[in-house]
Amino acid sequence: MSKRKVRVRFAPSPTGPLHMGGIRTALYNYLFAKKNNGDFILRIEDTDQNRYVEGAEEYIINALKWCNLEIDEGPGLNESKGPFRQSERKPIYKKYVDQLVESGNAYYAFDTSEELEKMRELAKKAKMPNWQYNTITRNSMKNSLSLSKEEIENRFAKNEPCAIRIKMPRDEDVRFYDEIRGWVVVNTNNMDDKVIFKADGMPTYHLANVVDDYLMEVSHVIRGEEWLPSAPLHILLYRYLNWENVMPKFAHLPLILKPDGNGKLSKRDGDRLGFPVFPLEWTDPVSKEISSGYREKGYFSESFVNMLAFLGWNPGNSKELFTIDELISEFSLERVGKSGAKFDPEKAKWFNQQHLRSKSNSELAVLMSKDCKYKVSNDFLEKVAELMKERATFHHELLSEDYFFKSFEDYDQKTFRKKWKINSISLVNEFFAELNTIELFNSESIENVFKLFIERKEIGMGALLPCLRLILTGKGMGPSLFSIMELLGEEEVMNRFKEKSMFFEKLFLEKSDT
Ligand code: GLU
Questions:
Q1: Which atom of ligand 1 is nearest to the CA of 12?
Q2: Global confidence as pTM
Q3: 292 burial via Cβ count (<10 Å: 0-12, 13-18, 19+)
């Protein structure tokens, strides 16, 4: 038998912004497809019109684009097996549900939502809180299995709304192999007669999902663990539709857990603990509430993707930094874990920091030039990048120090109080006088002058360096001061010295007066 072409689909419902767990599902599908020379399909599962949220589909597409998860087929793209929006496939499903009724595996159900609600209430009162429409209760409900032939015909004649439910067999084990969890067995006594086709003529998720996976020739269904309980129903649908021979393989991905490991990560955890749970910022179309996004917080999409890859998968060695191409070549479902993956917001930052460090200064300078409010050359920005790189987590932090671009306005009062002493001004004056004489104004020679100077004066570094740093940057700490001096250049260094050493000395004298 020839090997089946790998075709996977990411099938989100446009019910709001895509949570990072959704992007992880998309990512694993993408990696699996690319690793196996397969196709990555985007299918929009919008059968539930009541839950449709304006802008959600666009959000999904933009989020995939930002993460560079390029789709091969999707709405408006290579639609020979489309359309890829379920709402546009409405006429397709009817035929299959009719087939299921015909073969006795599905039936008409006339119960109204009020009647169903009433049943649930009654059951609750009788201390059976989880009432289900199933092999036992269906006999006392209004459906084509319990009602007489005349009554059914009567209801059809009156055009009474009716749904179609799957007819669960009694006491049968449904077995299937999950690529991540191994064999899963569920007894049909624990399953209910789910609605597969609604009175409004739309299929529900279960039927649409199975029919579409079949028609789109999907070879592997890779999705979140929350769909594992639905899988046995899907297996039965494949069986009843006689598609078992082309049934896709299933892989249910582990949950993404809260940082403390207690339960599934939710939007509220992000709000509470101050990290985004969405790839891109999202404004709720109704409440106008804004949820933060990784992109807007300054994360590189590469590091976001790298971080997500590790939420459930690992390469089996200690390598953690991966480009997308490396992820593609290393990825396999065998290395996806069964147990939930704890999300660690600090680790997310760490990934960004590492990706930042792995970029060249010229790449960083290009990014910086977009945000920099000062007119400087990219060459200059490259040097700022070099100095700031090791201290930054996000690329905008490379521009967080104004002293690279102009003399400071605010200064660090604590450092001034602690470090500016009675003899500071004479040390500073003498040091700058010596500096004036050096031939090559670079960090090495400056450092040399500095070292000889403190040696001769028999003072520690701490008696002079903080004062110099205050004068030149207004700060108590930062990257190598000698390198900063080289970057600023002799003229600027001397100007700041003239202006700021007197400024601090005056402050010092005023302070001593009082
Ligand atoms: N529409 C489902 C969701 O929103 C897709 C589940 C599946 O992949 O089968 O997650």
A1: 4
A2: 0.93
A3: middle
